[in-house]
Amino acid sequence: MVETMAAPVQDIDREQAVKHLTAVISHLRSCSLTEARSGARRCMDLLSAWMEPADTWQAPKLSLLDAKGYVGTVKESGHIYGLCPHHLVPYYGNYQLIFLPGPYLVGLSSISRAVDSFCRKALLQESLTQELGEFFYQNLQPNNLEICITARHFCKEMGATNHSSSTQGFVTRWQR
Fold first, then answer.
1. Pairing status of strand 2-4 against strand 166-174
2. For the segment 31-48, what is each residue's pLDDT rounded down to a tens digit?
3. Are 77 and 150 in contact (CB under 8 A)?
4. Which positions fall inside the GTP cyclohydrolase I domain (predicted)?
5. What distance in Å separates the CA atoms of residue 33 and residue 7, rounded to the nearest whole number?
6. If I label 104, which of 21, 123, 155, 158 is the partner at 20 to 30 A Cα–Cα?
7. Exposed e or buried b for every residue in 34-69, given b needs 16+ CB within 10 A?
8. Is 167 exposed, middle or buried (0-12, 13-18, 19+ CB in 10 A)?
9. Which domains are seen in the chain, by residue range?
10. Residue 4 in this model has a pLDDT that exceeds 60
């Protein structure tokens, strides 16, 4: 059973993307040619170094351990950095993964590497939360699992609302 408080995923808004790119081009035109070329190159270098192309991205492999005899709950938390596919601006925050192990435990560094790998795709926070929940649920086969991501969105802070706030998304799964 899946319980989610995330908003439904929507297709990329073409008008919004054109508006954003037009503003970027307008800014580049106001710069000197050298500044514009340098800024565009640095931006592309940053994005290409950080993001994984959708057609070559592969789900990470987890270091699974036998949970036989383990009694307790596993809790892992860390930072996330994502890129909004609607606005091409970042969001950042924290994740918290809590699970009651089934047959497997996992090396804690595997969890943070997996989260980082999913963050390298341009995903809405809601999609990131859902995909991580499904990934860990399928691979760990836990009795209970909950993932929560709390993030600040620059598309919201720099855009029309122009104020700081954070958004939480939850995915909870359990076996019956």
1. antiparallel
2. 777 777 787 788 777 777
3. no
4. 79-166
5. 42
6. 123
7. eeeeeeeeeeeeeeeeeeeeeeeeeeeebeeeebee
8. middle
9. 2-10+54-174 (3.30.1130.10)
10. no
Q: How far apart are the C-alpha atoms of 173 and 161, rounded to whole Å?
A: 33
pLDDT for 160 equals: 60
Q: Compute the 3-state secondary structure of the chain and give helix, strand, coil in percent, each to the nearest 5.
A: 40, 30, 35
What are 80-92's pLDDT values in tens digits?
Answer: 988 888 777 888 9
Residues 99, 73: contact at Cβ < 8 Å? Answer: yes
User: Could you report the per-residue pLDDT of 114-133, keeping only the tens digit for each?
Assistant: 999 999 888 888 899 999 99
Determine the residue type at 128: L
**DSSP element (H, E) containing 169:** strand 166-174
CA–CA distance from 147 to each of 58, 104, 151 (Å)? 21, 17, 13
Return the H-helix or E-strand segment holding 42. Answer: helix 33-50
Joined tokens for residue 8: 């439904």
75: nearest Cα among 52, 108, 49: 108
Residue 72 tokens read as: 């307790």
What is d(CA 151, CA 115) in angstroms, rounded to the nearest whole number?
14
The pairing of strands 166-174 and 74-83 is unpaired
Q: Match 């508006």 to its residue by tokens.
A: 19
